[in-house]
Design goal:
- Helix 1 runs parallel beside helix 8, helix 4 crosses helix 5 and helix 9 runs antiparallel to helix 10.
- The protein has two domains: 211 residues, no CATH class; 275 residues, Beta-galactosidase, Chain A, domain 5 (Distorted Sandwich), CATH 2.70.98.90.
- It is of the alpha+beta class and 560 residues long.
- The longest helix has 27 residues.
- The protein has a nine-stranded antiparallel beta sheet. Strands 5, 11, 14, 17, 18 and 19 form a six-stranded antiparallel beta sheet that branches. A five-stranded mixed beta sheet has the order 4-3-2-1-7, with no helix packed on it.
- The protein has eleven helices and 20 strands.
């Protein structure tokens, strides 16, 4: 197999995998489960506390964490998410709605991220409590005593001082919500604190116990959402849960796993998140807190089940006539990896580069450094492509020299093929003698390309997954590098460049194979017409540089 065929084979496999994933999603949607076995074997451990209904959207606590070894109280089960008054909060990056029921964050618009820079300038709505696009954040307290009435979970109603808040020129904005027990002896104040230019929100739970007995219970935080359809039929990215692990870094918990078994996982600090292409919501407990990560699925019998991923603290004790504060961080926004990695260890893993992350992260780092100088993501892609091409220049040269020598002896190979067309053994022997005489390694062009394939795939995922590429402007009509070229200019240039590259390569011996190879530029032009223009830009620049290098080497060898 010559180098050009190997390149095309690798690219074809990449596109084929993308199409296969899309076909699988569209033809085999996740089934609606009416009965789920949460006690079956799985790499996810099941709950040690049975008894909560499968449709409950409240977490359970392992019995070992409960005070005096009692069962945990289970507040009223909410089959549907109730709604009260809405509190409007506006900052320079957010337009948020908080509901007085539960103090839930029910709607989040990201003001710096339009839906479509060309067709829909309205901001992306990341969180929403509407059917089909349901995604909200919830917190609450569970009492460690089954008889306690001091258990303000996310079904209780809070009182607020105002229904509208705006950050303005302030350095921070506090939004308090208060719940008080009927006897007036127990108060929970939930305080959201917003900061200019930041997508992380400080969340404080201030617990005041004026009763005669110590209160013992747990704080939980959870993200509840439905699955969403992929925006592109060609580019499938991961949507689902992801959690940190103390040993192995992180783990994906997809919706099918949540449907099959309830997660119960002990951890210290860490983070939980619900991610999608470019954006995510994540809860980050204090680094030294003992936590239990959990999942739930509600409305299983509906066509749009709700998937819950949460974390619940170890037992908290509030003495009589005292106040305790519990602090967490909630992140809702774009996966800006150089920023989110500073919020919690491994949180930048939510930028899903797949199994080649070890290569992809340095590539992104270099791309970001170039961007900080040229201040244009299109030119950053071009310069990054040039740098990568320069790094592999010697390897590419070896490959192109091998192909040039093969091209030079192609007429003699065809003559051998014609002479021994009825004798394969003699044909192969004569061809090997010719290779030996001309000092040609027929596989000499393959190894350099094999080495480069992981880099190419890593760069592909960097350009696909990085939110910085989303709707990034380049030049002329290309004002959205995350969308296909509206005039198909880049895909056409890419197809032409592939055709030129084929002409520089030795022609295949097999006429059928030759026809297939001639069709590939057309096939890939059609495929890339639907790919983000940032990816196609990389291909065009890489092909043009390859053509220049290969043409020079081929001419030098043929004229020698």
């Amino acid at each position: 197999m010559d180098t050009q065929r190997l390149i095309l084979f690798a690219a074809f496999m990449l596109v084929s995998m993308s199409l296969w994933q899309t076909w699988q999603v569209q033809t085999n949607p996740p089934p609606v489960h009416s009965i789920t076995n949460t006690s079956g074997t799985s790499n996810i451990s099941t709950d040690s506390q049975p008894g909560l209904p499968a449709t409950d959207d409240l977490p359970s606590v392992p019995i070992s964490d409960a005070a005096d070894n009692q069962s945990i109280s289970t507040p009223s089960v909410a089959q549907k998410v109730e709604s009260g008054q809405r509190i409007s909060v506006k900052t320079d990056v957010f337009d948020i709605e908080i509901d007085t029921v539960g103090g839930d964050i029910r709607r989040v618009s990201l003001l710096d991220y339009p839906v479509d820079v060309n067709h829909d300038p309205s901001p992306v709505v990341l969180m929403n409590d509407k059917s089909g696009v349901f995604f909200i954040s919830q917190t609450g307290l569970l009492s460690a005593s089954k008889d306690s009435v001091y258990a303000p979970d996310h079904n209780v109603s809070y009182k607020v001082d105002a229904l509208s808040y705006e950050l303005g020129q302030q350095s921070e904005l506090h939004v308090p919500l208060t719940w008080t027990s009927d006897d007036g002896l127990f108060t929970l104040t939930k305080i959201y604190t917003f900061h200019p230019g930041k997508y992380e929100i400080d969340v404080k739970h201030q617990i005041t116990n004026n009763s005669t007995n110590a209160w013992q219970g747990h704080l939980y935080r959870q993200l509840q959402r439905t699955n969403i359809e992929q925006a592109s039929m060609f580019l499938q990215t991961y949507t689902g849960g992801m959690i940190s692990k103390e040993v192995d870094g992180f783990e994906k918990i997809d919706f099918s796993e949540m449907m099959d078994v309830n997660l119960s996982r002990a951890n210290t600090g860490g983070w939980i998140s619900m991610i999608q292409h470019y954006f995510m919501g994540a809860w980050i407990p204090p680094a030294n807190s003992k936590e239990n990560y959990y999942t739930r699925v509600t409305e299983r019998n509906s066509s749009d089940p709700h998937y819950i991923l949460g974390t619940i603290s170890s037992v908290q004790i509030v003495d009589p006539d005292s106040t305790t504060e519990l602090n967490d961080t909630l992140f809702i926004g774009p996966k800006l990896q150089l920023h989110i990695k500073d919020l919690a260890t491994g949180l930048d893993s939510t930028v899903d580069y797949g199994f080649l992350s070890v290569i992809a992260h340095p590539i992104y780092w270099l791309l970001d450094k170039i961007q900080s100088v040229v201040n244009n993501w299109g030119w950053s892609i071009i310069f990054l492509t040039i740098i990568i091409k320069a790094i592999f220049y010697k390897l590419s040269a070896t490959s192109y020299k091998s192909m040039a020598h093969m091209r030079k002896v192609t007429p003699r190979l065809k003559a051998i093929q014609e002479q021994f067309k009825d004798n394969s053994a003699e044909k192969n022997k004569a061809m090997m003698e010719l290779y030996k005489k001309e000092k040609i390694n027929p596989l000499g062009g393959c190894l350099p390309i094999v080495v480069q394939i992981p880099v190419f795939i890593s760069l592909y995922w960097v350009l696909l997954e990085s939110v910085e590429m989303r709707q990034a402007d380049f030049m002329l009509w290309l004002n959205n590098l995350s969308a296909p070229d509206p005039y198909y200019v880049l895909p056409l240039i890419m197809g032409i460049s592939m055709f030129v590259q084929q002409k520089l390569n030795p022609a295949p011996m097999d006429p059928v194979q030759a026809k297939v190879m001639m069709m590939l530029p057309i096939i890939f032009t059609v495929f890339f017409a639907f790919f983000p223009s940032g990816l196609v830009l990389y291909w065009v620049v890489n092909n043009l540089l390859s053509i220049t290098q290969q043409w020079y080497i081929t001419r030098s060898i043929e004229n020698a």
